[in-house]
Amino acid sequence: MLKELMILKNLGVDGSLINYYVNYFSEEERAQLFNGGAFELQFKYNLTNGKHLVVFEDKAKLVATEKMVDNVISRSDAQNIKIISYYDDLYPSNLRFIKNSPLFLHVKGNLNLLKVNHSIACVGTRNPSNNTLQLIGDIIKGLVKEGMVIVSGLAKGIDAISHKECLDNNGRTIAVLAHGLDTIYPKENRTLSERIIEHDGVLVSEYPIGTNIQRSNFVARNRIVSGLSQGLIVFEADEKSGTMHTARYAYSQGKHIFCPYVAKDNQDLSTGIKKLLESGSAIPITNAKDVLNVLFTKVGIESSLIKELQRISYHRNISMEKLINSILEKYIEGEKNNE
């Protein structure tokens, strides 16, 4: 069915018809759609978007589209790129619940890595400060030690550094690209992309092989970076940078956003980080444990209480870990006094 779905997508058919094709049409009706029976199916299933069915009357376009799809599948196979659709069991469940889920994923490497439930996205500026570089190394080392998978976009700067730090600590990482997997951008990250695959990682894109680099695709790519993850760390970013698109996607997807903790009055704080922290959109962190405590807490703490702890942590210049430990120590001390 993959080939037929790719043809439908490239014909410009809308999602509702594709959904009918997969979930309601019989095998005979699927064949009928491509063989002159589109309008009969429209009346049978009361399909309201009939304008999308006109394309099935254009035999030349159908033949050309099928030929193009065959070419994409053939070239992908030759480069060990697997194509999975939204309706495939291998499709990552995390992406099923985001807005505008990609219909197809083109994957090279460890496909199973896309379905893990312990991944964290790491993003930020192309030109990080020395302090940020130190934080990236320390935090990612701690996350990888606990089995976290690192997700990023293979871009210059913090993206590439995050992938490298993960690999240097024997971790696994997912790189989400904004073009066909036959291209690596920037070119200097080609060796890094090969290393990711060699170390049980994976490259993934919603764009088929042969798709050229387009600026708009990088913004769209960011929803997948956050969508594949349980949370997002923004290490350093300007307020109007592309990184903030990823933060907005993460926020709309209900994902936790983390930023390295810096004192509120620190003038070195990047404008994007400052905005995320002061608005309460992001959780301040100083180490990997701060992230893990929020993502994988084993006690049933109410969301409102977590937010209050985060607020106290930020305004009192103390990490979440130290704050929670302080509360526990006072509780234990009080219990002893009551004995």
UniProtKB/TrEMBL annotation:
SUPFAM superfamilies in the cross-refs: MCP/YpsA-like
GO terms classed as biological process: DNA-mediated transformation
Domain Smf/DprA SLOG: 82-294
Pfam families found in the cross-reference section: DNA_processg_A
PANTHER family: PROTEIN SMF (PTHR43022)
Cross-referenced NCBIfam families: dprA
Family: Belongs to the DprA/Smf family.
Protein name: Rossmann fold nucleotide-binding protein Smf
Species whose genome carries this gene: Halalkalibacter akibai (strain ATCC 43226 / DSM 21942 / CIP 109018 / JCM 9157 / 1139)
Classification lineage: Bacteria, Bacillati, Bacillota, Bacilli, Bacillales
